[in-house]
Amino acid sequence: MAGHLNPYAKNTSHVHHIYFRIDLDIDGQFPHDVVEQFDHLSLEDPPVGGGDTWTPIMAQGKHLADPSTARKWRVRNTVSQNTAGHFKGYDIEIPQMAGPDPYSTGDLWVSIYHGDGVQQGEGVATEASACSDNALETVYAAGPLDMVNGNDIVVWVVVRSHHEPRPDSEEVEYLPFHYEEFSITPRDFDVLHRRDDPGHGDG
User: Fold this and answer.
1) How many angstroms separate the CA atoms of 112 and 76, rounded?
2) What are the 10-residue block averages of pLDDT along the chain, 203 residues in total?
3) Where are the alpha helices (DSSP H) in 4-139?
4) What is this structure's pTM?
5) Strands (E), the chain
6) Domain-by-domain residue ranges, the chain?
7) Which of left, alpha, beta for 27 (phi over 0: left; psi -120 to 50: alpha)?
8) In terms of CATH architecture, what is 3-187?
């Protein structure tokens, strides 16, 4: 991201909200996806109170990150499995560069695909009266999910970053290219084998 600084408010700090719409059709097996939320609860061995847990998300809607529990999400298929019988999916992890604010109120939204006749996302952050993510909750991410058969899941992710302007140095007229990212990691697509080495362990 880059751009020309507002000449009338060069010193005004602000937050960049970068939204991504993700449609993961795993092995082409759609509509057969569900979403689950991960939370780390304990380092005890054996784990006390569940240790690391995955909780199914039962309805479309908004979700918040929680660094204290290493929260992440995964979209997994209800049909496609690897050779060990685990359902294939993708983990989604979002960096916390800035927290929610009145304009960007969540970190991840679970929705379904609304069809080719709808320009998905045209209302997000463009409402003249709100300039917020309100459309995600009221238009795109509302209603139940099929936890047995799955749905054609669409996940919305936002990466926020606070921008402290430097108009008297590096940003006299233009914002230099600014990069933010989140990760999508394959999960259970295949079984990894390694040689039998009693000395092998986590390094």
Assistant:
1) 14
2) 76 84 90 95 70 92 94 96 94 90 92 73 61 82 92 93 83 77 92 56 49
3) 134-135
4) 0.83
5) 3-4, 14-22, 33-40, 52-56, 61-63, 72-81, 87-93, 108-112, 153-163, 174-175, 183-187
6) 3-187
7) left
8) Distorted Sandwich (2.70)
